[in-house]
Design goal:
Length: 207
């Protein structure tokens, strides 16, 4: 039994989600049962929903991975790969749209909203880093981006009514500022927090 969080654990690509597993049990024929899963790795948690039977699956082999230079192939670009066997005349082609996951900051996590007796509000979150530099006790995670910046959007009924750029993992609002938003009573207000990276914004944390 292996540790699925180890960098040496086998990794799978399943419809855009990266999954590591710690143990594969042979069930007969071509069937295996995978156990001790770590899902949604490498910023793919937004792809970690249920996968239907027959979904394409790819075993990721470290030694065969090829890096794509983001300077030449940006997010949203469609790339085409062709495979040609030694005795074949016609290549098999496949296309894929580049999402830029490796260069996009991970979405923040652990979002919290606190209100005090005066009606003031504090919004906080925890950043993650797309480059794993290892764990050191009592040492803050290093920043792989040019600077620490976050975009905070306030939305209601699908419309953005206010936005802020902040250099920290929190933002405070006074009661008078909140009153100035003029939100209808009983309306649902949503904050979206994105980290602004060197190449792109992260996916949002919604509160």
């Amino acid at each position: 039994t292996g540790d699925p969080l180890s960098q040496f654990a086998p990794a799978l690509w399943i419809n855009g989600e990266i999954v590591r597993y710690g143990f594969a049990e042979f069930m007969g024929g071509s069937d295996y049962r995978l156990r001790h899963l770590a899902r949604g790795l490498a910023g793919s948690e937004h792809k970690a929903g249920p996968h239907l039977a027959g979904t394409a699956l790819l075993l990721i082999e470290q030694q065969s991975l090829k890096l794509i230079d983001p300077r030449y192939v940006g997010s949203g670009t469609t790339i085409v790969a062709e495979a040609l066997g030694l005795n074949e005349q016609t290549p098999i082609a496949a296309s894929l749209q580049v999402e830029g996951t490796a260069t996009r900051p991970f979405s923040p996590v652990d979002g919290r909203v606190m209100r005090d007796a005066n009606g003031d509000m504090s919004l906080s979150w925890v950043r993650r880093d797309r480059i794993d530099a290892g764990w050191n006790d009592e040492v803050d995670m290093p920043i792989s981006e040019d600077a620490l910046r976050f975009e905070v959007l306030l939305k209601t009924a699908g419309q953005t009514i206010a936005s802020w750029l902040v250099p920290d993992e929190h933002i405070n609002f006074s009661a008078s500022e909140i009153s100035g938003w003029q939100l209808p009573i009983s309306s649902n207000a949503e904050f979206e927090i994105r980290q602004i990276g060197r190449h792109a914004r992260s996916l949002p944390l919604s509160i």
